[in-house]
Amino acid sequence: MSIDLIGNARPAAAAVAQLNGAAHELAAEAGLSPLLVELVQIRASQLNGCAHCLRAHIRKAAGAGETPERLGLVAAWREAAYFDETERAALELTEAITFVADGHVPEELIAGVRKVLTDAQYTAVAWLAIAINTYNRAFITGHPEVAP
Question: Can you tell me the distance from the alpha carbon of 68 to that of 72, in angstroms, rounded to the nearest whole number?
Fold first, then answer.
């Protein structure tokens, strides 16, 4: 049984959409590629098990030119040489934010990521991760059917 948390709470959904839009603007201003933005959203959605968001962001990434190999390897990005230093830093930060209850975002992780990402890029990735985690929680809680 599902409940449409987005449709049933338009003011809240609009606020989340505004947050997501602002995070995307930050990413563009920081010079992050649209593909990196999708990788962040895919990784958080994988970790949270959000089929709705995974389907949406995999489609967006593929439509923007992401390769099937890289899409298939996002879950194993640490072991795959398909991702550059900036993408790796973004994925690492995304994982820490997604699992914030498991030890917060450790100072040593922040220090390592900030050696790669500029302040603007770090800020953008953080807000992208926060926004997609919010969407993941809304869709997972609402249990929408994800069918072909």
Answer: 6
CB-based contacts of 126, cutoff 8 Å, min separation 6: 93, 97
Rounded CA separation 7/10 (Å): 6
Contacts of 36 (CB under 8 A, 6+ apart): 27, 86, 87, 90
- pLDDT tens digits along 107-116: 999 999 999 9
pLDDT in tens, 22-37: 999 999 999 999 999 9
In SS3 terms, the chain reads as: CCCCCCHHHHHHHHHHHHHHHHHHHHHHHCCCCHHHHHHHHHHHHHHHCCHHHHHHHHHHHHHCCCCHHHHHHHHHCCCCCCCCHHHHHHHHHHHHHHCHHHCCCCHHHHHHHHCCCCHHHHHHHHHHHHHHHHHHHHHHHHCCCCCC
